Amino acid sequence: MKEILKLSQQFWSLFTSKNRYIYIEALMAIYDEYLYNDYFLTKETCIQIIAEHFADRIVDISADDDDTDVDQMEPMATKIMNRLIRFTWLKKVEDYSSFRTNIVIPDYASIFIEVFQKLINPDNGETDLYIQNIYTNIYSFYHDKKAGMELLKTASVNTTRLNRSLQDMLHNMDHFFGSLLNKQNYEELLQEHLDVYVETIVNKKYRLLKTSDNFYIYKNDIKTLLRAIREDESRLQILKNKMITEGKKEEEVENEYMDLLYDIERGILNMEKRIAHIDTEHSKYVRATVSRLEYLLSNDDNIKGNVIALLNLMSEENREDVISEVANIIQINDPTLISSASLYKKRGKRKVFEETVETEEPVEEELSKEEILQINRSKNRYSKAQIEQFILGKMEKGIYRTKDHAIRTDEEFELLILAYDYSIRKSSPFHVVPGERGRITNGKYTYPDIIFERNYSS
């Protein structure tokens, strides 16, 4: 906390400024060049970098002007740099020997700038590095008798970071469910699923759990090594002898050693739980997507589609004419439909001593959004055999590409969507070849260029 208190009060002005995004962009532009120039840049170079970065747009930072500013007539790039120096995000260092002013980025500012970069361009490969580093550190500690406690500490730190990455991944999957209900047609929903969910989660972040070089392989080896280290008393004795010579007590060394092993083991267990949750959320999302697609694909070729279209039309504003027309046309032949017994009532618990005690009837709780989705989920109109026949019947040498066989009917379009979802299952006799190949438009149908390949092992 003492180090944070050393920061100038002006440092936090960047976050409260209305032009903070402009300043952050300028800082990252300078930082990218700063790393490759021995960690210092001249004042003129910084101004040139800022000017080139904003050359293609008009920038206005007049909202931060005050009476103390003496650079009102200066170019915009100079004003931005002066503000960053005043906010103490940049620092001037005078080089009197060469008669020039250098600009440096203080260490505290560098930490914040790196955070900005991770927020804008997250490193999707970090999770792979963490699990590999954990395995490497523990393996090296076990086989290298000269290794110290630092390897276990590094493994513990990487375990914590990987758990945090998995937790962020799990939380980021939640917003995909909300986006499903906002899509009003199947084209938008399919594009959202393929371009956003599949590209972001499956191909980038979720690949940690699906690639051949993944968490599951390292997990078992890490557990085996930790068990062997814990049972190897001679290894602990070597470590004690080494650290006692450095001035540490034997009891402190053993406690720290056991605590580190416990932290790593607990971290691995937490990873397993989080990955299980991610798998569950992934399955729920896929099921909800297919249900939503089936709902949007329901049209006037069945009763359900007609009812949905009619209800959507009646729910629009100022459509009393439609409601009146429906009321005149609809026929109710069954007298029980208009009796009081047919009306829906929320049921409460049975009253006790009803003749003497008046109690308020508790009502049933409202259904959650997930329960409503579960109740409204419709069954597939096509069997697995029909879906498999649709794909396998079009394959040539075990390959079927959608651009070679145009989709012409609603039935073919629905089967294509269901086949894509079916391809990720273990029991599927075919799978989708990964890769982005654009989209195909054929009349009213728009769908991605997908390649299905047969699984000869199934």
Question: Top keywords for this entry?
Answer:
three-stranded antiparallel sheet; mainly alpha; 3 domains; 18 helices; 7% strand; Arc Repressor Mutant, subunit A; 458 residues
Notes on the structure:
This protein has 458 residues and is mainly alpha-helical. The chain folds into three domains: 2-119, Arc Repressor Mutant, subunit A (Orthogonal Bundle); 123-297, no CATH class; 384-454, no CATH class. 56% of the residues lie in helices and 7% in strands. The chain contains 18 helices and eight strands. The chain has helices spanning 2-5, 13-16, 20-34, 43-53, 76-86, 107-120, 126-143, 150-172, 174-180, 186-205, 215-231, 233-244, 250-297, 303-314, 320-329, 369-376, 384-392, 410-422, and strands at 41-42, 91-95, 100-104, 399-401, 430-432, 439-442, 445-448, 451-454. The strands form three sheets. The protein has a three-stranded antiparallel β-sheet. Strands 4-8-5 form a three-stranded antiparallel β-sheet, covered by helices on one side. A hairpin with a 4-residue loop joins β2 (91-95) and β3 (100-104). α3 crosses α6, α9 (174-180) runs parallel beside α13 and α17 packs across α18 (410-422). The protein is extended, with a radius of gyration of 32 Å. The two termini are 60 Å apart.
